[in-house]
Amino acid sequence: MTVGTFSLVLHSHLPYYRKAGKWPFGEENLFEAIAETYLPLLNAFNALRAEGIQAKVTLGITPILAEQLADEYLKEGFEAYMSDVLDRIELDRERYEGTGDPRAELADFYHDWYRDRLHDFQETYARDLLGAFRALQDDGCLEIITSAATHGFSPLLSRDSSLSAQFKVGVDNYKKYFGRAPRGVWLPECAYRPGYEEGETYRPPIDQFLHENGLNYFFTDSHAVEGGKTAGYRRYIGLYGNIEYIPMPERPLSGLTTYQGYWMPENPVAVFARNEAAGYQVWSAAEGYPGDPWYREFHKRDGHSGLQYWRVTGPNCDLADKDFYNPQLAAQRVHENSDHYVGLIYDMLKRYQEASGEEGHIVVPFDTELFGHWWFEGVEWIKQVIRKMAKGSGIRRVTVGEVVESEPPSHAYQLPESTWGAGGHYHVWMNPDVEFMWPIIHRCEERMEELVRRVPTPATPLQERALNQAARELLLLEGSDWPFLVTTGQAKAYAVERFNDHVDRFDTLVDAILAGTLDEETVAEIEGIDNAFSEIDYRDFANRQARAGVKS
Q1: Which is catalytic among the residues 367, 449, 481, 530?
Q2: Are 444 and 438 in contact, with CB atoms under 8 Å apart?
Q3: Bridge partner list, 197
Q4: 185 within 8 A of 145, measured Cβ to Cβ
Q5: CB neighbours (10 Å) of residue 302?
Q6: Minimal CA–CA distance to 402: which of 363, 350, 349, 351?
Q7: Is 71 an annotated catalytic residue?
Q8: 337 Cβ contact partners less than 8 Å away, ≥ 6 residues apart
Q9: Residue tagged active-site, from 27, 36, 189, 481
Q10: DSSP 397
Q11: Tens digit of pLDDT for each residue in 306-358?
Q12: pTM recorded for the entire structure
């Protein structure tokens, strides 16, 4: 007998790093995630499948991440990166051998670990991670969902053309790699806004663009459904750095629960909210599992090799005082923490069942890169949670698409303007540090519409290439990563430079198209840097702004 259902949702996303630096910001961030998160996840899901257990994880892979995982240049870069890591580990082995330093044994551990990940990439998965994830979906182990093409912050885009195109390109990109249409979508930053009238135009709700593109469910944060106060950071604290927390004004309590989904009032699209308590146990740096003293410390690195040889040690322990990591003792804590989590989820579902007389559904979404990359032991924790739930726990694991199909929501609810960012509002992506970006983004949106209107049809082959490349640059400059990295202080100069680079390439192309001065060399050069989305069609960026009072 079951007490309810559980859906683990993993949102996999990184900025577009291709040919945009190596370290500390750039391609090596992608390579770290491949080695420490994506490959271990594939191994975990396949190990469970070999045991006869379908993971039933809802896995988001953003289109811009998919493009990078499929890119041959970046695959070669990953192999070179892994070879360099192994070389640095070998130097550490020589440096610490015979000294009595615990790093000697840990270097042996890391040598085997990274060697195996390189073997997984080249041999087990034949350098095709997307194909490996697709095989798991085709076998019923996962449900893969999409997102906006470049993770653009949807509510602040000024033109419905670019907002619609973000999702259309996302859907088309998904079909290219996964051979089917997606059912679910991750709204970038869980950012939602209802429909509203703006002067003489009507801005449709975000869910209308989802419905138009065949998407039938998405996610939001708990406060957007329950009301009340926002509880703080909704993502693992390590992903934020230092950011001012500005609470949202308290909303009236709605009386609704996150133990079920809801239909949007205007479109047949369902929304599922994060369960606050179930998520907090994982994402909280202070009280969640990643802060366990025996887990590997993310922030302290060896001065020679950059390897992470230390453990968390304590919540207020200075980096200089960290103790050395012990993989065996960390593994023991994974067993204990996974036992605790399965018990927590069971108790929550049981209490809801007893109070309501019906089974509840717990949804817990996280950034995928938390597991393995930020929290080194996190992927093994996921595997053990799934295995323990599968073995008579009374908890039924489901993908969110299965819920929409077999147990669809029975009520509708209009979400308010909201995000899963700090404070629950738009502040992370619209504040004095980043507000300069938005007039530029809006100008570029309008210029793209102008291009589509003014260029004759059919365009010449060179014009068509340039138009499609301009559309790529528009999508790339719209990415939510640039204001996020500025606001959090993680990579302010890098993010501003990246934003300006895409704006410059966009303007270069638009100016040349409109002036009739296009040349093959310029177009080819820009295509060689930003080559995402072969499926893009500039015609999708035609003006589609609706008149006020018209809700088409």
Answers
A1: 367
A2: no
A3: 202
A4: yes
A5: 18
A6: 363
A7: no
A8: 289, 292, 381
A9: 189
A10: E
A11: 999 999 999 889 999 999 999 999 999 999 999 999 999 999 999 999 999 99
A12: 0.95
